[in-house]
């Protein structure tokens, strides 16, 4: 196993043990549930982050008028994370980060992460390989999801 | 220089074990990494679009049943780490790049998404149809017509879970050639035709283009690790529930 694979495996194991129900609510879906014609931003504290294929999952604790509550997100693949500049340790549990995302079509909280700002202020934006513009990604149709599977 | 080397290698091989017309005719080299070509004015990868396919009534019924089953498009094979199969992967493949590894008797294509692999066999490597193992990528026989690579694929599994549904009788014809865009960049073009009288009232055709990425690399696409880790968690819970001590 390569160093990268080993690191990812270790990360996945550690995080999988910490994952709660909020993650399961969004697991294993295509991106058809997200509205890629819209973009929203949200700031919160990372409760869980799982950078895996086919897509990442992220749970933020957001504090707003409703008080502190958890919001679940999906996002791009490990491959797209690496191409966007993410490396293990870029985002950790407890970090305060900002995400830009395509919201869910059903109006519930959360969405598909198109970009985020790390606690260190690093901007990581996702775009499909070969694209000439940054996220948000173009609107897919059918069961499409941009540069993910 | 690259072409010269290839010609030398081809000549050496053709004089030895291969000796096929396919090897002798191979004068182009597409080895390397290719990404989806972005047309001038296009802002990025467009993803899978809605398709108006000429499905037969029976096929449409099957496809509609599949889509109803997966809750109106909220699920798909990729979300469960299964590759999309032909011809969706050559057309879409999540927007990820592909790598071509070219030898005179076999051309291997690796699509990064789900690490789907296709092997295109030439000349004496081509198996009789009865010996081909069916799969989501079928079996591909290839030949060179000048600088155009012609690929014929059969032995496909029936699939409704794809943007191009088809039966197991489907046949795919691909014709690849290389051209240059206005800036002189290498562009690989595939024009393909899907023929399947069981599913379509007429052949389905499309074109796909890739741009050569001189420094491109394919990244590993491990996908079912999550399912395995979840399985281990389940085993641990079962072990704990049964009161078995940990070794």
In short:
The complex is a heterodimer of chains A (149) and B (247). Chain A is α+β, with helices and mostly antiparallel strands and 149 residues long.
Could you characterize the architecture of this molecule?
The complex is a heterodimer of chains A (149) and B (247). Helices cover 18% and strands 30% of the residues of chain A. Chain A is α+β, with helices and mostly antiparallel strands and 149 residues long. Chain A folds into two domains: 1-30; 39-147, OB fold (Dihydrolipoamide Acetyltransferase, E2P) (Beta Barrel), CATH 2.40.50.140. Chain A is globular, with a radius of gyration of 14 Å. Chain B is built from five helices and nine strands, in the order H-H-E-H-H-E-E-E-E-E-E-E-E-H. In chain B, strand 5 (139-145) and strand 6 form a beta hairpin. Chain B has a single domain (27-38, 53-215), classed as Lipocalin (Beta Barrel). Chain B has 247 residues and is α+β, with helices and mostly antiparallel strands. Mean pLDDT of chain B is 86; it is low at 1-19. Chain B has a nine-stranded mixed beta barrel. Chains A and B meet through helix 1 and helix 3 of A and helix 5 of B.
What's the pLDDT, averaged over the residues of chain B? 86
Helix content of chain A: 10-25%
The CATH first-level class of the largest domain in chain A comes to Mainly Beta
How far is it from the N-terminal to the C-terminal residue of chain A, by CA?
23 Å
How would a textbook summarize the main sheet of chain B?
9 strands, mixed, barrel
Determine the fraction of residues in helical runs of chain B and give it as a percent range: 10-25%
Oligomer: heterodimer
Tally the helices of chain A: what do you get?
3
Terminus-to-terminus distance of chain B: 61 Å
CATH class descriptor of chain B: Mainly Beta
The total of beta strands of chain A comes to 6
Most extensive interface: A-B, 43 and 44 residues
H/E element order of chain A: HHEEEHEEE
What CATH calls the topology of chain B is Lipocalin
Mean pLDDT of chain A: 71
């Amino acid at each position: 196993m390569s160093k990268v694979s080993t690191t990812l495996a270790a990360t996945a194991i550690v995080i999988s043990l910490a994952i709660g129900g909020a993650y399961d609510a969004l697991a294993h879906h295509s991106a058809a549930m997200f509205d890629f014609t819209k973009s929203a931003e949200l700031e919160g504290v990372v409760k869980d982050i799982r950078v895996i294929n086919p897509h990442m999952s992220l749970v933020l604790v957001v504090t707003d008028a409703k008080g502190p509550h958890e919001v679940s997100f999906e996002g791009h693949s490990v491959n797209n994370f690496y191409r966007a500049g993410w490396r293990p340790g870029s985002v950790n549990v407890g970090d305060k980060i900002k995400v830009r995302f395509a919201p869910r079509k059903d109006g519930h909280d959360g969405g598909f992460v198109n970009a985020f700002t790390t606690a260190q202020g690093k901007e990581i934006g996702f775009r499909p390989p070969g694209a000439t513009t940054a996220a948000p990604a173009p609107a897919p149709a059918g069961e499409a999801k941009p540069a993910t599977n | 220089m690259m072409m010269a080397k290839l010609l030398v290698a081809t000549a050496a091989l053709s004089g030895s074990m291969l000796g096929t017309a396919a090897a002798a005719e191979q004068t182009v080299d597409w080895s390397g990494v290719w990404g989806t070509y972005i047309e001038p004015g296009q802002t990025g990868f467009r993803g899978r679009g809605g398709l108006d396919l000429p499905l037969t009534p029976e096929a449409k019924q099957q496809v509609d049943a599949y889509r109803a089953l997966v809750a109106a498009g909220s699920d798909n094979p990729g979300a469960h780490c299964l590759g999309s199969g032909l011809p969706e992967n050559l057309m879409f493949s999540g927007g990820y790049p592909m790598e071509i590894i070219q030898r005179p008797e076999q051309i291997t294509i690796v699509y990064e998404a789900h690490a789907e692999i296709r092997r295109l066999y030439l000349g004496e490597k081509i198996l009789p149809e009865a010996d081909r193992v069916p799969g989501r990528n079928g079996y591909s026989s290839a030949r060179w017509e000048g600088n155009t690579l012609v690929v014929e694929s059969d032995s496909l599994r029936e699939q409704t879970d794809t943007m191009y549904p088809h039966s197991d009788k489907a046949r795919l014809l691909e014709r690849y050639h290389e051209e240059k865009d206005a800036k002189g960049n290498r562009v690989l073009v595939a024009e393909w035709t899907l023929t399947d009288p069981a599913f379509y009232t007429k052949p389905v055709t499309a074109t796909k283009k890739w741009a050569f990425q001189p420094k491109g690399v394919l990244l590993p696409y491990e996908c079912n690790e999550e399912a395995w880790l979840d399985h281990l968690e389940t085993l641990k819970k079962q072990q704990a529930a049964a009161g078995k001590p940990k070794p």
